[in-house]
Specification:
The longest helix has 33 residues, at 70-102. This protein folds into two domains: 6-200, no CATH class; 204-289 and 394-478, no CATH class. Helix 1 (6-19) runs antiparallel to helix 2 (28-41) and helix 4 runs antiparallel to helix 6. By secondary structure, the chain is mainly α. The chain has 22 helices and no strands.
Length: 479
Amino acid sequence: MLFNSTEFAILFAIVAILYYLPFLRRWQASILLISSFVFYAHHNPPLLALLLFSVLCNAVGSYAVLRHPMKKARWVALVAVSVNIGILAAFKYAGLLALTFWGQSAEDYGLVQFLMTIPLPLGISFFTFQGISLVIDCFRARQSEKLVSSMESLVHIHSQGFWKFSFDTALYIAFFPQLIAGPIVKARDFYFQIQPKAFSDIRWDKVFRYVTLGYFLKMVIADNLKDFTYYLYFPLFLAIDWMTLLALLLGYSAQIFADFAGYSAIAIGLSAFFGYEIPINFRKPYGAQSFADFWSRWHISLSTWLKEYLYIGLGGNRNGAFRTYLNLFLVMFLGGLWHGASWNYALWGMCHGLALAVERAFQGSRPKDSNHFITATLRRVLVFTFVTHAWLFFIMRDLSHYMAFWKALATNSTPPNLVWITFVALYCAPVFLYHTKDWLWKKMATEHVRIIEPAIYGAMIWLIIFNSGSAGEFIYFQF
C-alpha cells in the first residue's frame, strides 16, 4: 500500500479517528497493530502469515533469552538469529543462489524455475533485521550490566509475562509507518514508547514538516524524475547521447535520494502523529566530504545496524589494519546484497567497501582541513561523483549492460536532448538546494528565514497538488 494512494488515505483516516477517541485510549496499541497487519496484507494477503511467523519466532526467542540461564540463552539466541537469516535467505536469495549454482544445469531446471517463483515479501529485509536486533540486544543485556539500563523497558515488559511481551514485539516489528522501508528501529528505542498517547501531545510542527517534505520529495521530485531515468535501463540508453546520459545519471542520483528520504520523512511524520519517535534516516548525504561521512548520513539506520551488529561482530578495527579493511569490505558487500537478490547489488556494495577501505588506509575516516571552502568543495564533488557512479549498479542488472553504458557514454555523439536535460535539471535543483539549506540559513538573517521557510513549505504543498508525477512504488519497497 503506497503512502500516496487513496487506499492508504482511507486507512489512515480511519485509524487516526479511532486512535484518539477517548473511550478507545486503552486500545491504541491494538488499533495500531491491527491497522499494521491490514496495511501489510493489502499487497499480498497470504504473505501476512510470514510476518506473523517472524513476529512469533522473535517474540518466543527473545523472551526465552531473557528468561533462561546464560548458557541456554546463548543457544536460543543463535537459533532465533538463524531462523531470521533462514527466512531472509529462503524468500529473498533462493532464486539468486539457484541461478548462480544451477542456472546452466538442465537436470535442475525445474528446481531453479520453482525457486525463482518464490514471492519476495515487502519489507522482508527491514523486519528481519529488526527481529535480529531484538534478539541480539536481549542477549547482550544478559551479558553486560552496562546494557541493562538501555534495555530496561524490555526487561520490564518481560516481567509482565509472555503475552504482553509478544504483543509489544508484534507492534515493534509490524508498526506500519516504517514496516515496508524503514527506518530500521532498535527495540530498546521503541518498546518504552508503547503507552497511551494524548491528542493534545501531538507535535504538529514536526508532523507537518516531515510529512510535507516527504510527500514533496516522493511525489514531485522522484515521481517526475522516474519518467526520465527510465531510459537509463538497458537497452534504452544505447541510442542516447553522452550529455543526456550524464544528466539522466545525475537525475537518478537525485531520484533515489528523494524517493527513499521522502519515504523516511513520511514515516517519521506519521509516527510522530501517533506519538512515536523513530530515528532520522538521512542527514543531507550528498554534502558528505568523505565516504565514511556519507555512510554516517545515508540510510543511517542501516549503516548503524551494520556497524553495531555485523562490523563489530567481525572484530571491527580491533585486529589490525588488514582485518579492519577486510571487515569494511565484507560488511559493505553484505550490505549491498541486503539491497537486492542480484549480484549487481553486491558489486555496488563492493565499490563502497573498497572506497571505505582505501580512504581509511590513506586518509583516515575523517576529512582533514574540511573547513577550507575549496578543499571541502572538492571532497564533496569527489564523493558525490563516486556515489552517483555507483548507483549505476542499481540500474544495470548485468555487467555487460554496465560496460555498454560506458561505451555509449564514450561514443554516442548525437545532439543532446536539451528538453530532457532542462527538465531533469529543474527537478534535481530542489534536492541540491535542500543539501545547502543549513549553509543558506546561516547566511541569512533570522527574520528573513522566518518569512522564507513558511513560503517554501507553501510552495511544496502547491507543487504536491498541481505538479505530482505519476504514482510509482518506492524504490526501497523491493528490499
